[in-house]
Specification:
The protein has 87 residues and is of the alpha+beta class. The chain has one domain (2-86). Strands 3-5-6-4 form a four-stranded mixed beta sheet. The chain has a two-stranded antiparallel ribbon with strand order 1-2. The protein starts with a strand and ends with a helix. The chain is globular, with a radius of gyration of 12 Å. The chain has three helices and six strands. It is 34% helix and 37% strand.
């Protein structure tokens, strides 16, 4: 099963490591630094030009990838729970 992150981007639900709210996690300087360093190292994929509401960390081809999603973390969490319940 796949989790739709926005636009035409989907990831296998089994590869999702975490789903995080951008607004609440950016209060931490550690998170800001983590995302900045990940972007510098080309681990971040911005799904759309819209302002991101969440970020999703997934393992893609045995490497960590961070997706900036225009969909809220609560919606993505609900989608993942529905998918996980169906498995």
């Amino acid at each position: 099963m796949f989790l739709h992150l926005g636009e035409n981007v989907v990831v296998p639900i089994k590869d999702v490591i975490g789903i995080f709210d951008i607004e609440t996690t950016m209060y931490s300087s550690d998170t800001s630094q983590f995302l900045r360093l990940a972007e510098e190292d080309d681990f971040v994929e911005k799904i759309t030009d819209d302002k991101p509401k969440s970020f999703v960390i997934a393992e893609v081809n045995k490497k960590s990838k961070i997706y900036l999603s225009p969909i809220s973390s609560s919606t993505l969490n609900k989608r993942s729970e529905i998918i996980y319940d169906e498995l």
